[in-house]
Write a structure and sequence with these properties.
With 224 residues, the protein is of the alpha/beta class. It contains seven helices and ten strands.
Length: 224
């Protein structure tokens, strides 16, 4: 049995709006084995993205533990947390977040600039990542020269170029047409099945959730 790469234990998170407390997560616990593909579903405001951000080390819990790849994230100072993210987390967002002034290769290379790899090694990693997502012939294209589906492929290449421990995807098909969405989901499924990448995906789309091995539903800050 695979060990758990993610352990969320009794996590609580509350935000404040004009000093009014808004509980988002209420004593939530979740375990994700290495190599799993998990979909998080639920209505808007249920806490899906908050949970994803906690696992990715973007936010911190008010109570409880978030342990990812053996590290209790609450114990890391901010200065170490960013370095930890660069080694362990690959991000895929709904709106791609590509820099328009860079080529596809330039966008994919960005996470590698934080590493000690040489320029040549970075270039080799970028080429491999873009070839894996089917865009080896688009390395020098700018985002405006790509379709939405191709832009998301570039974003996925950027997410995997550092060989992260966990890929977190927040509505990765939310801005795509049906065909492009299917292609992106097939690509994520391949990363999971062939390359054993652990993927945690937030989605509203039941068709997207079908690609996952496990589906969790959140409602009012609690898991089903």
């Amino acid at each position: 049995m695979a060990e758990n790469v993610v352990e969320v234990r009794g996590v609580e998170k509350t935000y404040y709006r004009e000093r009014i407390p808004i509980p988002v997560l209420r004593g939530l616990s979740l375990s994700v084995p290495t190599g799993d593909f998990v979909a998080l579903m639920g209505p808007s405001g249920s806490g899906k993205t908050t949970l994803l951000n906690l696992i990715a080390g973007i936010d911190r819990p008010d109570k409880g533990q978030v342990i990812v790849a053996g590290t209790d994230l609450a114990q890391l100072p901010d200065s170490q947390l960013s370095k930890w993210r660069s080694h362990h987390i690959g991000f895929v967002f709904q709106f791609y977040n590509l820099l328009p002034v860079l080529t596809a290769a330039g966008n994919v290379e960005l996470p590698l600039l934080l590493t000690k790899l040489s320029k040549r090694e970075r270039r080799d990693h970028v080429r491999s990542a873009l070839e894996l997502v089917g865009l080896g012939d688009r390395m020098n294209h700018s985002p405006r020269q790509l379709s939405g589906g191709q832009e998301q492929r570039v974003a996925i290449a950027r997410a995997i170029v550092t060989d992260p421990t966990v890929i977190v995807a927040d509505e990765p098909t939310g801005d795509l047409d049906k065909q492009s969405a299917t292609e992106i989901l097939d690509l994520l499924g391949r990363l999971n099945s062939e390359f054993q990448k652990t993927i945690i995906m937030v989605t509203h789309d039941p068709r997207a959730a079908e690609k996952a091995r496990v589906v969790h539903h959140l409602d009012k800050g609690e898991l089903d």
